[in-house]
Amino acid sequence: MGKFVLITGGVRSGKSAWALKRANESPSKSKVFIATAECFDEEMKERVTNHKLERGDEWVTVEEPYKIDRAVGDLDNCSAAVIDCCTVWLGNIWYKNGDSDTALVKNIENFSKSLLKWQQSEGTGEIVIVSNEVGWGIVPLEKSVRRYRDWAGKLNQKIASLADEVYLCVAGISVKIK
Hints:
- By secondary structure, the protein is of the alpha/beta class.
- 46% of the residues lie in helices and 22% in strands.
- Strands 3-2-4-5-1-6-7 form a seven-stranded mixed beta sheet, with helices on both faces.
């Protein structure tokens, strides 16, 4: 059966590095990085370039800012994959559809279903999912930011409930919590 792991924590806590290390330790010869970010400015372009260099040539990069359910469905069930990152993906969905509860629920459900289908496949692969914990700080002043924070929490709870393992990363140290 396929396996998937959630790594969550604050921004710049070391989640992505941990996810790549975990996937690189996989015996799978196929390594796939599902990138959810879109490059809207020079800073983001530079970050994406640096991340590609960190991964190296053995990684196939799939850029999918909206349909990560489709990207999961296209994965070989014996591959090692990293999805980075779910909160960026959620922001993309939000930007594209507005803060429609219906669109958010539909996209989260489609993503969840694709993970379950992959998890129940006959393969031996593993997906490592990166997501930010955004609700640990002060309560945002703006209503839309509070709604995004709440939806990010719902997304993380949904993924964690389905995941085989969940890790929390703080200051570059990951701790298994499930």
